[in-house]
Amino acid sequence: MKRISCLLVANRGEIAVRIIRACQDLGIKTVLAASEADRESLPAKMADRVVCIGPASPTESYLKVGTLIMAAVGSGAEAVHPGYGFLAEQPELPEACARYSLIFVGPKAEQIRQMGDKILARQMAKDLGIPIISGSGLIQDLGQAIPAAEKLGYPVLLKAAAGGGGRGMKIARQPKDLEIIFTEASAEAYAAFGDSRLYLERFIPRARHIEIQIMGDQHGKIVQLGERDCSLQRRYQKMVEESPSPVLSSDLRTAMGEAALALAHQIQYENAGTIEFLLDQDGMKFYFL
User: Fold this and answer.
1) I need a labelling partner for 161 at 20 to 30 A (CA). Which of 2, 71, 92, 110 fits?
2) What is the mean pLDDT of each run of 10 residues along the chain (289 residues)?
3) Are 171 and 159 in contact (CB under 8 A)?
């Protein structure tokens, strides 16, 4: 594989800092794609070069594929790293990178398309025999959400179909909650991922968030590197990761690792990735997230 000498960082904040530090350790020059609001940020001070990609609003900067590609090509970058969030789970970015002979640091577009859409990913897990939480299909509006929630039984969780990280996720404990938060969840999902689609899942009150780290190469070899217990969160954002998880039995650990590998092999995954599970502590049963 061609060695990268210059990389465009298509993100901001903490993840941009981590990418830049890694590049510095590897002797790779970095170009930061920054909105007008982030031109004086810490990542901007650390990068070798900064290219302004638009206004503060992510929909006008970090979520514009064409602008990021222009920034990469114009700055002489050979690769694009999306970090997480924003366009990291959108297949349009790696597809555009391929058209312009840029290396996309991440999985292939089709792999993102298969796993990035939560509805498709849930169905794939179900087809493989991996447990999933009871849920709905895509919810277009409140009129569809109300009967779907009644069928599942309250409390229910509104979730963004096109991304994760807790963005667009809201708990409705009763019908009036759903009426209040539906528009808010939809708007938040659109702001984070450029996609306002939502779906519902049954809410599990006593649950732990367990992730299995996977790594796949370009020759079909995929390994799982154990679990991280990410249950300590604030606003659905992880604050502490524990590894190994303090609650998993050896049998559960083995079963979750096998489930993660089954999904990864199903789509012939490449690069680093995470398969997420929810562990219901009442029954010590796990579900694909």
Assistant:
1) 71
2) 90 97 98 97 98 96 97 98 91 97 95 86 95 92 93 94 79 92 90 86 94 94 96 88 95 97 96 94 93
3) no
Q: Which residue has the tokens 């002797």?
A: 27
d(CA 145, CA 162): 17
Q: Which residues pair with 189 in a beta bridge?
A: none
Length of the chain counted residue by residue? 289
